[in-house]
TrEMBL record:
It is found in: Cell membrane. The lineage of its organism: Bacteria, Pseudomonadati, Pseudomonadota, Alphaproteobacteria, Hyphomicrobiales. It comes from Phyllobacterium myrsinacearum. GO terms for cellular component: plasma membrane. This is EamA family transporter. It is a multi-pass membrane protein.
Amino acid sequence: MTQGRANLLLLVAGAIWGLGFVAQASAVGNVGAFLFIGLRFALASLTVAPLAWREARLARHRLTRRDYGSFIFIGLFLSVGSVLQQMGLATTTVTNSGFLTGLYVVMVPILGVLMFWSWPSPIVWPCALTALGGIYLLSGGQLNNLTTGDWLTILCAVFWALQIIFINRLAHENGRPFMLSFVQFLTCAIFGFTLAAFMEPFNWPSVMLSWPAILFGGVFSCGIAFTLQAVGQRYTSAPQAAIMLSSEALFAALFGAILLGERMTVHGMIGCALIFTAMITVEIVPALRNRADA
């Protein structure tokens, strides 16, 4: 797969996640954050299980215990980030959540340097800042009074960034993206159900009331989108992947306007343009440089 096609998969994942913000917000108040995470990732596990089984049958080499341990480790970052994002949506807006989650765009290269002294291509830095500026404008540029939900979402972005980094460092070479997805989804489901059993009451009527959001979150936002991420990241760098995935904020604003009646401001339109500029630049400049070197 070419890097361009991989980045296109990541863009599709961002679009699905953008729509997922609307679905997640509709479930807040009806289902506890831990139970919601458990239910949607259980559905995600079932969605990707046939692909993981087929991948295992066709694989030339078996995965080791270390591989599975790495997948579980990555799944824990996804678990904590998902819970923090869902809890944050209780006291922040969909738009603010989209912006603050998008902070992982800048956190990925920064944490990569701090943790592993891994310096990205120079073009990544201005593109990351451009994308972040675009996400900020999509929020309306009004984040003066951060709520508890805002801070939880900022912390969520840290775990999102770590998940992206460790997919590239621990799961990049084994060529088993579907098994990675299955194991990390199963880890999230067990994580959510375990905490829900001790910390949240179970109310079946409330679960049924939120079943469309749970179904979309499980099958599409998790099962399909995170699998697209796992596949796409095999053929691109972590910083470039973060920039492509940052399109979720753009799509969150778009679907918020279509489904929730939210109107796109002039600032929001400029923000969309900046995000697209960042995504196109991070794709085209390295390709032109490689062609010139060849």
